[in-house]
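As promised in the previous annual report, we have extended the structural survey to additional targets. Below is the entry for proline--tRNA ligase.
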Amino acid sequence: MVFITHIRHAIQQRSRMFLPTPVHLPRETRSKSQSLLQQTAIVHSVEHGFPQLLPLGFRVLTKLKALIRNEMNNIGGQELSLPAIGRKNIWETSDRWNLMHDELFKFKDHDEEYCLSPTHEEAITKLVSSVCKTIPRSNYPLLVYQITWKYRNEPNYRHGLLRTKEFLMKDLYSFHTDEKCARQIYDQVCDAYERIFQKLELNCFKVPADSGLMGGSLNHEFLGISAVGEDTLLICPICNRGYLKNKTQCEHTEKTEQHAIELGHCFLLGDRYTKAFNAIEGSSDIATEKKPLIMGCYGIGLTRLMAATVEILTPKDFNDIRWPRRIVPYQVAIVPPKKGSPEETNGNEKTLGRLLKLDNTEWFVDDRNELTIGYRLKDCQKMGIPIVIVFGKRATKENLCEVIDVYNNRTEYLSYEDTLKFIHNYYSVFC
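The corresponding structure token record, generated without further manual editing, is:
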């Protein structure tokens, strides 16, 4: 029975995947995601706070970017890209060169001082201030965002992707001509964040928070419950709302205390930055009073969120990853019979062959047919593949597909047509 050599390249072959044996596994960690992502070669390591994502991890991150990008576009966001390097004089304008001194990676080049940007309030406000006099009023509210790598000199990097020195972040900035509009957009972005976390199957709590060095008049964190989280969340079982421990605003006395991970943060900044950079309301088509624009900023750390989904969705003491279905590395894995086994020559070539000819980049085949079906199935489960199609004894005998719904712990024996229908119905709920 020959089938592996005829696989079309649309379906990835497991034997060709770059999944090196882990060599830097953490010795002791409270983080499930750190251990599981490295054991399954999704992340190679996060040495000294700098993550190395392998192809499976990059696939997850790419899907996460697409999901978030779609939500930002739907509320009127326009994507751009700003330099990762910030000049000292720009950061001095907001006074954060000194305020964030220890958090900035600073360096010199030809006697000029720079930093690697952990965020871009200064850069985007400087850009808007340089063109605001030519911006027509119809451009407001202006929402621009980017998804880029950021850098923070984090001395206490830990828990794999949850706290690092280098991280991928979506940061959206909004500019408004009045406070009322700014608050409307603030609410719209918060709603978009809740949709994002809902699509990621995460139960999150939106809570009032401290503005810290960011500044501003209003801000909220979005938190997900996790034992490894560094925020303390008080949850009211009566109103099902959460509050940070030091900002309790619930009238009910009965509350449960939980650790939580920050998933996102929204700030209404007022004129904290626009005033400093002289980003004024002064359009090219209408003479207006020259007053600073009102600004908001909204962040989600994607690498952190990727790890947080594993922390939150994977049950305690579980050795198999559980992903949100929208961002799984692959949706389906196919496990053919072991070479030389009775199943290999049991007459199921037609059904298996039809599956292998499907033009679907969300499927892969574990073609390492020198290994047992059980070993390869366990590999797929560890990676968090939700559906595995196995060609074992009963399936090959009855010319069916053994379809294993990993996340719901159930197995069905289906025809080729019913297998495709099952998979379509399964993912239509999530995608």
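The first helix runs from residue 32 to 39. The domain at 32-313 is CATH 3.30.930.10 (BirA Bifunctional Protein; domain 2). These points will be discussed at the next consortium meeting with the crystallography subgroup.
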